[in-house]
Amino acid sequence: MDPFAALADPVRRDLLRRIARGPARVVDLAADHAISRPAISRHLRVLGEADLVTVEDRGRERHYSLDSRGLAPVQALLAELAAGPRFGERLLDGLDLEVRRTVRERSTTTATTVGPTEETA
Questions:
Q1: Which of 23, 31, 83, 92 is positioned for an S-S bond with 65, CB 3.0–4.6 A?
Q2: Residue 70: is it exposed, middle or buried by C-beta count within 10 angstroms (0-12/13-18/19+)?
Q3: Domains recognised in the chain with CATH numbers
Q4: Residues forming a β-bridge with 53
Q5: Rounded CA gap, 27 and 22, in Å?
Q6: pLDDT tens, the chain, 121 aa long
């Protein structure tokens, strides 16, 4: 399953936050929510299919842990979005300098051209 689809549900995001603090059993996770244990188990199954959690069987209990490798596509998207504009500030400063130079040259050329006309008028 796609990690973005798995993270779209607020209950699954909440479960992931709890599991990120340390491994947890289904019973512990269900105690924090007003939904049934089978519902929590279904959410955990979705998180497992998205490679966001791992399961370890200890006797009759299942302990869920965060699998941060599943978050790689999400982290890549966030890094891409946080990268900022495609042009660096240095390039924009160079463009600003060139625009100012062109405006200055044109105003000097115009003043030279207009200058004699003003004298004759």
A1: 23
A2: buried
A3: 1-110 (1.10.10.10)
A4: 66
A5: 14
A6: 899 999 999 999 999 999 999 999 999 999 989 999 999 999 999 999 999 999 999 998 999 999 999 999 999 999 988 887 777 788 889 999 999 999 999 988 877 765 555 555 5
What is this structure's pTM?
Answer: 0.66
Q: Looking at this protein, which amino acid is placed at residue 53?
A: V
Distance in angstroms (rounded) separating the CA atoms of residues 8 and 106: 56
For residue 25, the surrounding DSSP H or E stretch is strand 24-25
Alpha carbon distance 96, 88 (integer Å): 13
